[in-house]
Design brief:
The chain is mainly alpha-helical. The chain has one domain. The protein contains 21 helices and no strands. Helix 11 runs antiparallel to helix 12, helix 15 packs parallel to helix 17 and helix 16 runs antiparallel to helix 17. It starts with a helix and ends with a helix. Keywords: Cell inner membrane, Cell membrane, Membrane, Transmembrane, Transmembrane helix, Transport. Part of the tripartite ATP-independent periplasmic (TRAP) transport system. It is found in: Cell inner membrane. This is TRAP transporter large permease protein.
């Protein structure tokens, strides 16, 4: 049955059918051929129960927060400010791509939104200043993946919702791995451009006065991050409430910089509705698919297969990692998470692993899937912003960053404290 479902999923995705619809179609098919009961009768109740959660309300708020930052021009100001501070490093403006993605990740909660934002403001600079298109584009695509690791993260909210794991603890757990990944990206660029200076363009040093004045443009993002995350960990607000507070803060800051007008607000709201509808269609479709898979016995079948291998807990984790790497080539990341979490996480917990640690490990695997072809969403986002050149340039440019992510996976498996130290210290 596992092979049949996998083949059906890949076949439908190859037909360019929207992912959420694919999940529903597979659920109907499994219900018809494998399930002994007509589960379709409970579809209405299932759709309602899978979407009727206060936790999920945080998603549209964080999406709206990112939309406001992009459309009000705050993201472009942040990029210009970071250019003043990091362009002296080997690689020049490439580091500004990574630094901007890191800071924007601390407020947007979305990988695709982060990649789209940085690509929009950065790509015009690549040709003007003579940067290598591969490395420049690859850094934007890879930096964008930090949006689902550094809190607040929409994917961590979904993981916490599906596993009944503390979302504040997941947010804390993602801080150190997220920062380490960002630093590893900077290190990778620095090494490459030290060996091949021609790939990094001109290294620019700005007067100290300009650098200090640029800090004023970084304060809005820092204040928003402090407002959102601080309110959660102080116990003043739940993640959902903190998201709404963040939206209010973003509107106030955008108004201070003159970025608020009727057209901007309208575009931000429409963009939020579109992105939220896409996310919720995937969540609801995956919930229905999981329900039919459980009724047909596939979840138990997969668990029996993994347990029947007779491997040690560590070897089983390595098999699960390999499974996610392979599936990540072909399946959209959010749907990959939602479909597999109810099956895999109970097994991981049974093996004695911490669900918070596994959540962070899964996010790194999902990040890798975002920049590996043929379905890596960030690749298409960056290529769309380029508006010229070959798609293969972006794919080749992400290879060094995929290697850095692979090393992070190894580090998390070898040293779980990377993810667990902060949550345990703050308990």
């Amino acid at each position: 049955m596992i092979a049949s479902v996998a083949a059906g999923l890949l076949g439908l995705l190859c037909l360019s059918i929207p992912v959420g619809i694919v999940l529903f179609i597979l659920g109907f098919g499994i219900d018809a051929f494998f399930s002994p009961f007509p589960l379709i009768r409970g579809l209405g109740n299932l759709v309602w129960s899978s979407s009727n959660s206060a936790t999920l309300i945080a998603i549209p708020f964080f999406v709206l927060l990112g939309e406001i930052l992009v459309r009000s021009g705050l993201a472009a100001r942040t990029y210009t400010a970071l250019d003043r501070w990091v362009s002296w490093l080997p690689g020049g403006l490439v580091h500004a791509n990574i630094a901007t993605a890191t800071m924007f990740s601390a407020t947007s909660g979305s990988s695709v939104a982060t990649a789209a934002t940085v690509a929009t403001v950065a790509m015009p600079q690549a040709e003007k200043l003579g940067y290598d298109q591969k490395l420049f584009s690859g850094a934007i695509a890879a930096g964008g993946t930090l949006g689902i690791m550094i809190p607040p993260s929409i994917n961590l909210i979904v993981y916490g919702f599906l596993t009944q794991t503390s979302i504040p603890q997941l947010f804390v757990a993602g801080l150190v791995p997220g920062v380490l990944l960002a630093l590893s990206f900077v290190l990778v660029v620095g090494i490459i451009c030290s060996i091949r200076p021609d790939l990094g363009g001109e290294r620019r040093v700005f007067p100290f006065g300009q650098m200090m004045r640029a800090l004023g443009d970084l304060l809005p993002i820092i204040l928003l991050f402090t407002l959102i995350i601080g309110s959660i960990y102080k116990g003043w607000a739940t993640p959902t409430e903190a998201a709404s507070v963040g939206v209010g803060g973003a509107i106030a800051i955008a108004a201070m910089f003159g970025g608020i007008n009727a057209r901007m607000v309208s575009d931000a709201l429409i963009g939020t509705v579109k992105i939220t509808a896409m996310i919720m269609l995937v969540v609801i479709g995956a919930s229905f698919l999981n329900f039919t898979l459980s009724a047909a016995g596939m979840g138990q079948e997969l668990r029996d297969f993994l347990e029947g291998l007779g491997f040690s807990p560590l070897m089983t984790i390595l098999v699960i990692i390999a499974m996610y790497v392979i599936l990540g080539f072909f399946i959209e990341t959010l749907s990959l998470m939602v479909v597999t979490i109810p099956i895999v996480v109970p097994l991981v917990v049974k093996l004695g692993y911490d669900p918070i640690w596994f959540g962070i490990l899964m996010i790194v695997l999902i990040e890798m899937a975002l920049i590996t072809p043929p379905v890596g969403l960030n690749l298409y986002v960056v290529q769309g912003a380029r508006k010229s050149g070959k798609m293969s340039d972006v794919m080749l440019g992400t290879i060094p960053f995929v290697i850095a992510m692979s090393l992070m996976i190894v580090a998390l498996v070898a040293f779980p404290e990377i993810a667990l130290y902060l949550p345990q210290a703050l308990e």
